[in-house]
Design goal:
The complex is a heterodimer of chains A (125) and B (232). Chain A is mainly alpha-helical and 125 residues long. Chain A has 5 helices and 2 strands; from the N terminus they run αααββαα. Chain A folds into 2 domains: 63 residues, Arc Repressor Mutant, subunit A, CATH 1.10.10; 47 residues, no CATH class. In chain A, 62% of the residues lie in helices and 5% in strands. Chain A has a two-stranded antiparallel ribbon. Chain B has 7 helices and 10 strands. In chain B, helix 3 runs antiparallel to helix 4 and helix 4 runs parallel beside helix 5. Chain B is of the alpha/beta class and 232 residues long. Chain B has a single domain, classed as P-loop containing nucleotide triphosphate hydrolases (Rossmann fold). In chain B, 42% of the residues are buried. The chains are: A mainly alpha (125), B alpha/beta (232). At the A-B interface, helix 2 and helix 3 of A face helix 5 and helix 6 of B. Chain A: This is Transcriptional regulator. Chain A: Keywords: DNA-binding, Transcription, Transcription regulation. Chain A: It holds the Pfam family GntR. Chain A: InterPro entries: Tscrpt_reg_HTH_GntR, WH-like_DNA-bd_sf, WH_DNA-bd_sf.
Chain lengths: 125, 232
């Protein structure tokens, strides 16, 4: 519960979390999501809030509900690929915006990022 | 549209002390609502008025269109810390007693919740820990199939593990298609993700009734932080 913060509605935070799990492959194509109640129990969350999160993701085409069967990650992934790119773009946009504000040049940002990723990879080994 | 709890200009006085002052609100079916506020703000009084166990000095309280009184117990399941009256009962006897009092008590559901709460049916109430008494309250209160479940401080003074199991019990066994759960709490942070809306009281007056997500959206605040600002 502590992982949820006040800056954004809880249902959107849950929706973002599920979205990230799909993008990372933690939730796979065709996989069934927990029922609204079970998801509520997992996060100690109001079922109405879970319902809103599921509906939001459905509206965006990221989840689909089959009548009487539950909520699923769609088999067709084109929408997901599109979403994945969109999310990447948003994150980069935010990062670059902050870096620009602090006065870093494109070259500095790029080299900084490359160094960082190289180091992070070494750390993984 | 009569399926709701409605309070209109409700004032409650004890001798010459005002417990609640001119409260008007409505609560529909399908919500989990927290009544929040400091000690002596009138939380428990408000809950009791909704249950019909206490009557307003002036104003009206209706539950599903009918004036709240002793008969309101038919549609309202109410519990407070003092609800466990027979300390010599075992857990199972308390469940049987509840079943004898309320036709809407679902014994199968009670057994299920009892197992989820890991309660020993043969234990006597007087030898239960505070946490296990809290769990028994959940069993007795939630196994009734009524539109309104009212709980006075169901989470207070319990350790985090027990609170967690009680919250899970609430989510599992309150059916928001047909029911509304209203609870008082002085530890708002614990119920932030659990409730749809909250009723904030201060010195017996209604400070705010709002949707939790609206507060997150419009003010980017947790209820606790909002209260810090509002209660100064």
């Amino acid at each position: 519960m502590d992982e949820f913060n006040a800056s954004k509605p809880i249902y959107l935070q849950l929706a973002d979390r599920i979205h990230r799990q799909i993008i990372s492959g933690e939730l796979k194509a065709g996989e069934k999501l927990p029922s609204i109640r079970d998801m509520g129990i997992k996060y100690n969350m109001n079922p109405n809030t879970v319902q809103r999160a599921y509906s939001e993701l459905e509206r965006e085409g990221i989840l689909e509900t089959k009548r009487g069967q539950g909520t699923f990650v769609p088999e067709r992934q084109d929408r997901l690929v599109q979403q994945r790119d969109k999310l990447k773009h948003e994150q980069i946009e935010q990062f670059v915006h902050v870096m620009r504000e602090m006065g870093y040049s494109a070259a500095e940002i790029l080299s900084g990022l490359t160094d960082y990723l190289n180091n992070a990879e070494k750390g993984d080994e | 549209m009569s399926d709701m709890i409605r309070m209109t200009n409700v004032t409650k006085k004890y001798v010459n002390q005002i417990a609640l002052q001119d409260i008007s609100l409505t609560i529909p079916i399908g919500k989990i609502i927290g009544i929040v506020g400091g000690n002596g703000s009138g939380k428990s009084t408000l809950l009791k008025l909704m249950s019909g166990l206490s009557l307003p000095t002036s104003g009206s309280v209706t539950v599903n269109g009918e004036t709240a009184n002793r008969r309101t117990g038919k549609v309202v399941s109410y519990s407070s810390e003092s609800s466990l009256f027979y300390p010599i009962f075992t857990v199972r006897e308390a469940m049987q007693f509840q079943a004898s009092q309320f036709a809407d008590f679902n014994p199968a559901k009670a057994e299920e919740i009892m197992k989820l709460m890991r309660l020993d049916p043969h234990m006597k109430i007087k030898s239960l820990s505070k946490g296990n008494r809290g769990r028994l309250q959940i069993v007795l209160t939630l196994a009734r199939e009524v539109p309104y479940i009212l709980m006075d401080e169901p989470l207070s003074g319990l350790d985090p593990m027990i609170r967690d199991s009680i919250v899970k019990g609430m989510i599992s066994y309150v059916d928001l298609k047909f029911q509304t759960l209203i609870m008082t709490s002085h530890e708002v942070a614990e119920i932030e993700t659990l409730i749809d809306g909250f009723i904030a009281l201060k010195d017996g007056s209604l400070l705010k009734m709002a949707d939790v997500e609206e507060l997150h959206e419009s003010e980017a605040l947790r209820i606790k932080d909002w209260m810090k600002k509002a209660y100064v």
